[in-house]
Amino acid sequence: MSDDMRKGVGQQAQEKLTPDSQKSTAEQGSEKLTSLGDKAAGALQPGDSKSTTQQLSDTGRSNFDSAQDTAKSYTGQASDATSDASKKISDSLPSGGQAQDTGKTYLDQASELASNAAQTVSDTATNLANQISGSGSGSAGSK
Questions:
Q1: Is the CA virtual torsion 98, 102, 108, 111 positive or negative?
Q2: Which of 11, 80, 114, 143 is most buried per CB count within 10 Å?
Q3: pLDDT tens for residues 51-95?
Q4: What are phi and psi of 102, to 5 degrees?
Q5: Looking at the predicted structure, is the pLDDT value of residue 143 above 60?
Q6: Which of 15-24, 38-47, 64-73 is predicted with the least confidence, judged by mean pLDDT?
Q7: How far is 15 from 2, CA to CA, in rounded Å?
Q8: Residue 98 Cα distances to 79, 84, 109, angstroms
């Protein structure tokens, strides 16, 4: 199997950089299918038959996927924590008037805090993935 049967690094980068909102549903579906095929081909293709660029691309994609999974996990945990905090606040407040308004304020603050935490995790994962992709040639020999 040769790199000719794989997605090029340039094509992968262009797909990642173009927002989904600017792609048709057919383009998004096609990208997902070809990406899955390329991942499978990358897993099946022996490392010694890959070009250096393709090896770095496969390593970067693997690290990016791992970072995304971690970010999703943290986002889910933050969401669960927000739900738990909301329930505890709601349960601890008496019903009626000012107490409900105060509870809503706390819930809004907790929701904003969790949202900010989730965004920070997502940004960190993206930055990590970008660093891995961008620094692949400098760190490939150190592993």
A1: negative
A2: 114
A3: 888 888 788 778 888 888 888 888 888 888 888 887 877 777 666
A4: -65, -40
A5: no
A6: 38-47
A7: 22
A8: 26, 22, 17
Burial 29-58 (b: 16+ CB within 10 A, else e): eebeeeeeebeebbeebeeeebeeebbbbb
Residues 56 and 136 sit within 8 Å (Cβ to Cβ) = yes
- pTM for this structure? 0.43
Q: Would you state the pLDDT for residue 1? A: 44
For the record, the structure tokens of 102 come out as: 């105060």
Radius of gyration of the chain from its Cα atoms, rounded to whole angstroms? 22
User: With pLDDT > 90 as the criterion, what percentage of the chain qualifies?
Assistant: 1
CB–CB of 128/67 below 8 Å? yes
| Residue 53 exposure: Cα atoms within 13 Å on the Cβ side | 11
Which letter does DSSP use for residue 96 in this model? S
Q: Collapsing DSSP states into helix, strand and coil, what is residue 143?
A: coil
DSSP result, 35-52: HHHHHHHHHHS-GGGS-H
